[in-house]
From TrEMBL:
Catalyzes hydrolysis of the D-alanyl-D-alanine dipeptide. This is D-alanyl-D-alanine dipeptidase. PANTHER family: D-ALANYL-D-ALANINE DIPEPTIDASE (PTHR43126:SF2). It catalyses: D-alanyl-D-alanine + H2O = 2 D-alanine. Pfam families: Peptidase_M15 (PF01427). The keyword Cell wall biogenesis/degradation applies. Keywords: Cell wall biogenesis/degradation, Dipeptidase, Hydrolase, Metal-binding, Metalloprotease, Protease, Zinc. Belongs to the peptidase M15D family.
Amino acid sequence: MVWLSDPAVAAVPVRERGEPLVDLRTVAALRLDSRLADEEGLYAQLRLGVVDRLVTAQTLLPPELKLLIVEGYRPQALQVASFESAVAESRARSPQAGESVLRQMASMRSSPPEVAPHVAGAAVDLSLCTVDEIELDLGTAVNDTATERSHTDDPTVNATARRHRAVLAQALRGAGLVNYPSAWWHWSYGDRYWAYLTGSARALYGPILP
């Protein structure tokens, strides 16, 4: 399993495409959840190429199901705070561990800011819902990393959740996105992690900084 803290991921070069962020609130084909909504609406922003692929993924789902978008773009400052908190939690559990080990442990729950797909507008946290916007059981809540049940292929989740994860994965992979294995809800396109997993020579999107 390759973590976002792996130096090989950070070593992937970026050739920035300069694509704009698209406001998902204007994309009728996709459902948007407001649980992480911010005043500026940044949670609802994604690169154009990612949005196009999500719309494609929606067409690959059974007609009674919809993608439910929870979070897209995440500002750098928020990502830094998230990762530092994850490192602190890892240090509290393993006080004798070295810094590189702590960063790897933390990266199971949060991405190092320098390679974070959300900061590039290239990652989306999402779930599945019915056409009536009733969220399906996928084993854990989105962003619940308290146990390994958040891992996409964790065998301890119930059969219904495993089936729903498989349906979600088939549609998103079919549209060209990749999953981060410790978070069933986290998918990306065009970032360094995507480039590393797909063997692409370079990433398409770098951090969007204020």
